[in-house]
Every structure is written in structure tokens, then in C-alpha cells.
Amino acid sequence: NYRSGSQIREDFLRFFEGKGHRRVHSASLVPANDPTLLFTNAGMNQFKDVFLGLEKRDYSRAATSQKCVRAGGKHNDLENVGFTRRHHTFFEMLGNFSFGDYFKKDAIAYAWELLTSKEWFGIDPLRLYCTIFEGDDAVPRDSEAYQYWLDVGVPAERIFELGAKDNFWAMGETGPCGPCSEIYYDLGKDAGEDPSVDKPFGEDEQRYVEIWNLVFMQFDRTVTPGGPLLTPLPKPSIDTGMGLERIACVLQGVLSNYETDLFTPLIAAAKHYVMLMGGLDETVDIANGSSLPASYRVIADHARATTFLIADGVLPANEGRGYVLRKIIRRAIRHGRLRGANKQFFFFMVKPVVELMGTAYPELVNLQEKIQNVVIHEEDRFIRTVEVGSRKLEDLIAQTIVDAAVSNDVVVTSEEEIPEIVQRSLQLGVLRTKNIVPVLSGRQCFQLYETFGMPLDFMTDAARDAGIAFDMEGFERAKEEEQARARASWKGGSQKSAAPVYRELTKTEFEGYSALKVEGAKI
Ligand code: ATP
Ligand code: MG
Ligand code: MG
Ligand code: MG
């Protein structure tokens, strides 16, 4: 019963074509005419004006497989990558849409049929859970959706009621909004946070994975002097989104999106190229059943985001969208270096991404070489700008862990010689069992920021990936002290002492960072 990711994508679109939906190609990752949005992050983005009634199409039902990026902006999953099994920066969202045509009843019936019918996905209904909006002061409980779930055969004990945070969707302060229903899949006890405990739905985020979100656009939200006002829409609409990688995980019977055929070739490529460029030979560990370091998942994920973003015209820069891309590329490079790569390796990843995704997204095919050039240029730039600081940072992180291990009497012994990086992660593991988390010195990180132009987000990210804490207060304090010193010496008319080239670098990196913050805040 194996279905490849490509087959699943195609089956989804065919199913909805059979229900009178127009197949519409994915829109660009750079939203057209929507400066409030950093990247396309949902299938509905390209239909925003249709939902608002500002634009007419010659169809009232559509189905898409939409390229999405959730890194920066309102939905930011960048920090989740490497830590959860279900989040990516780039992913494909399968969606069916009704523009004032069918509503809740059909949306629920279609979703249930596709998921459970033997001719389609054939999922065991006893693995599925549904949620509905429980209601609040402004909007009543979604009893309609509740009834329709019962009608398709979901037993009452599998329907859960959740609050607005999970089950009420709004485009923004104003505009269409409404309750939603989410469908979850039980990956089983083995996928749970603690495989030895049988946890019920609602208590285990890893085990019960959200696969599909059905949004019922039912109201128009306006803001009046007396507060927000919800008016029923004359023609309610449907917007749904199902992560292709998540449904592939379910249908391929694996426990993680990263084990599906949408990722395994990329993870193999990441291992191959990292090793080719001087990295550790980790094949042995893996053959022994130990799990692959998260770095390869990060590299595979970021390779997809990088390839697709550049194909859609985003270039690395110090602000806005380009800065997010730069952050993604740098994070991938950092992870390659963590695994021992000492030369440019990341540009190699473009080819396997294009090979895997070029049929579904032909826009990639002719751009392979161009994308590779952008990436290698960025890798060169990494070496010129942050490599020195980045090495110092890794040393500092390593020292922090070693110090914590020494002062807490943690000893790691092994018959064979094990690489330092492996040793450290063992030490960290032992520290964790004692509830000790090493803290990266904010003051010393400030030194790296001042002297080598290390961006703050790069350093906090590295600490998080290493599994240690970051002393933000210490960083801020060191920064304030430096600013006070600078003001004092400025009054005295003297020049700053640090090398001007570094000072310049720090400033531009940081403008990029704050510009992004501002943009994010608007969303
Ligand atoms: P989660 O709660 O798991 O973060 P979400 O509620 O933020 O998901 P939605 O905004 O409802 O996600 O998006 C619709 C669907 O897109 C989800 O049901 C899921 O299948 C998929 N999806 C969302 N975010 C991601 C991601 N970062 N990577 C992969 N798939 C995703
Ligand atoms: Mg989310
Ligand atoms: Mg959710
Ligand atoms: Mg959701």
C-alpha cells in the first residue's frame, strides 16, 4: 500500500478534481501584492482577494499543492526544524477551497472520504481524531461541525472541543474569519514523547500529529469603536490545508516526516556531501541503529527552502526576505561544520532537491545552475565574514560544556577513541539527567559580536542547537556597558578602538536583523 510523496500529491488533486475543483498551480513563495506577508505560508494566500470578494475567478472550487515557507513572520517554524518530526521551513500544503460554494457539510465529508475510503488513502478511522471550536463570548460552539463529524461516522469520544487559539482562524484584525476543525492522526505509542507511557489525545504533541486543518470562513470581522464586530458572510467559504510531508508520513507508515521519500534522498545526500568535504563518517553509527544527528535533517530541510526561495527570486541580503534566506543558509552551513565539513558543501544540495522536486515544480529545472551559484557565493561569504567568529563560538560552546561536565564530575569513558563532538553530546546527556543545563556566557558572546561581527541570532541559535542555554541578560549588560563607554569616550573626542572593518560588519548585520523584526511586527 506504499504511496510516494508525488503520488499522494497527485491523488489529492485528482480526488478534488473529481469533486469539481479546478487544479491551480502553486503561487510563488514571494506573495504578489501583499507586503504584509513575508513569505507565502498557506494555500489560501493566493486566493485572499477572492475570499474578500475583491476578485472574481471563473471557478468557485479550487485545489492546489502550495509551496509554503514558515521562517520569520507570524508563523515561524525555523527553530522547530531539527527538534520536531513534523515541522519544516519549506513544505507543501495541499488544499481545497470553496469560494462561496460548498460549506462545512461537504468540506467535512470530502476530507473524511479522502482520508478513510479504501479507494483513496484508506486510513484506519480509529487512528483519527477531530477537533471543533468550543465557543466563546463572541462566537457560539461549532455545533454544526460537530454534527457533520458525527454524520460521517466519527464517534463522539473522538471529537474534542478546543478554544480560539487552536480552533478559530482569522486572516487579521479585519476580514474573513471563522471556526476551524483540525484532524489529527495517532502515530502510536512508539512515536510518543515517552514511548513507555500510553498518553491520551491532547497530552502528547509528538504522538498525535495534526494533519489537516479545515477552516470555515463564516464571518467578516470589523473593528468598531465599541470593539470587534463579527457579521455573518452572505456566502461562507472553505479553506483547507494539509501538509504533504505529514500525510506522507502517515501513509508510508513511518514515525517522522523526515523518514518519508520526500526527505530520505536529501538526508543521504547531506551525509554524502558533508563527508566528501571532510565530515565525520557517520554511516557506522547509523548502521548500529543509533539515530542520525539532527544536523542532517536541518541541512536537508534548509536545502529545500534555499532552493525554492532562490528559484522564486529571493537573494541573500541583510534585510527582509533576503535576510531570512541568509539565516537559513548560514544555519545549514553551521550544521555541516558541526558534523565536520571544512569546505563549501551546501551548494551540492541544490541538485538533489531539483532532481526530487523538478517534476512537480518545473520552475526549478532550468534554474539549477543559477541557484547553485547563489549558494556557493553565500558559502564564500560565510567564510569571509563569520567563519572565524563561528569557530570561536563553537570553541566557546564546547568549553562551556566541558567546564560544566568537569565541575559536576561527569566522566565519559569509552574503549575506542570517540570524536570530541560525540563525547560532548554524551556529557550533555549525563548533565541533563542531573537537571544541569550549561549556560553560554553572554559577556563572551558579546565579545564575539564586537570583535568578529557575529550576529546575535546566529549565536542564540547555535546555543539552542547545542542543547545549552544562552545568557541573554549578560549579553545585554555587556552591550550597555560598551555603549556607555563609547558615549563617554565620544564626549572625550577620542575614536573607538576596535578595528573599523569589524565595526562596519557588525552594524550592517544588525540593521538586517532589526529591519526583519520590524517587518515581522507588522504581520
Ligand atoms: P502545528 O500546530 O503542527 O504547528 P499549524 O496548526 O501551525 O500546525 P496550519 O497553519 O493549520 O498548521 O497549517 C495547515 C497544515 O499545514 C497543518 O495541518 C500541517 O499539516 C501543515 N503544516 C503546518 N506547518 C507546517 C510545517 N512547518 N511543516 C510541515 N507542515 C506544516
Ligand atoms: Mg504551527
Ligand atoms: Mg495546530
Ligand atoms: Mg492548524
From TrEMBL:
Reactions catalysed according to its record: tRNA(Ala) + L-alanine + ATP = L-alanyl-tRNA(Ala) + AMP + diphosphate
Positions of the Alanyl-transfer RNA synthetases family profile domain: 3-523
Cofactor(s) listed in the protein's UniProt record: Zn(2+)
Subcellular location: Cytoplasm
GO biological process: alanyl-tRNA aminoacylation; negative regulation of DNA-templated transcription
The keyword Ion transport appears for this protein: no
Keywords, sorted A to Z: Aminoacyl-tRNA synthetase, ATP-binding, Coiled coil, Cytoplasm, Ligase, Metal-binding, Nucleotide-binding, Protein biosynthesis, RNA-binding, tRNA-binding, Zinc
Cofactor note: Binds 1 zinc ion per subunit.
The keyword RNA-binding is assigned to this record: yes
Main location as per UniProt: cytoplasm
EC number(s) from the headed UniProt entry: 6.1.1.7
Top-level enzyme category: ligase
Domain text: Consists of three domains; the N-terminal catalytic domain, the editing domain and the C-terminal C-Ala domain. The editing domain removes incorrectly charged amino acids, while the C-Ala domain, along with tRNA(Ala), serves as a bridge to cooperatively bring together the editing and aminoacylation centers thus stimulating deacylation of misacylated tRNAs.
Its biological purpose: Catalyzes the attachment of alanine to tRNA(Ala) in a two-step reaction: alanine is first activated by ATP to form Ala-AMP and then transferred to the acceptor end of tRNA(Ala). Also edits incorrectly charged Ser-tRNA(Ala) and Gly-tRNA(Ala) via its editing domain.
Similarity section: Belongs to the class-II aminoacyl-tRNA synthetase family.
Protein name: Alanine--tRNA ligase
Organism of origin: Edaphobacter modestus
Top-level taxonomy: Bacteria, Pseudomonadati, Acidobacteriota, Terriglobia, Terriglobales
Residues of the full protein shown: 2 to 524 of 938
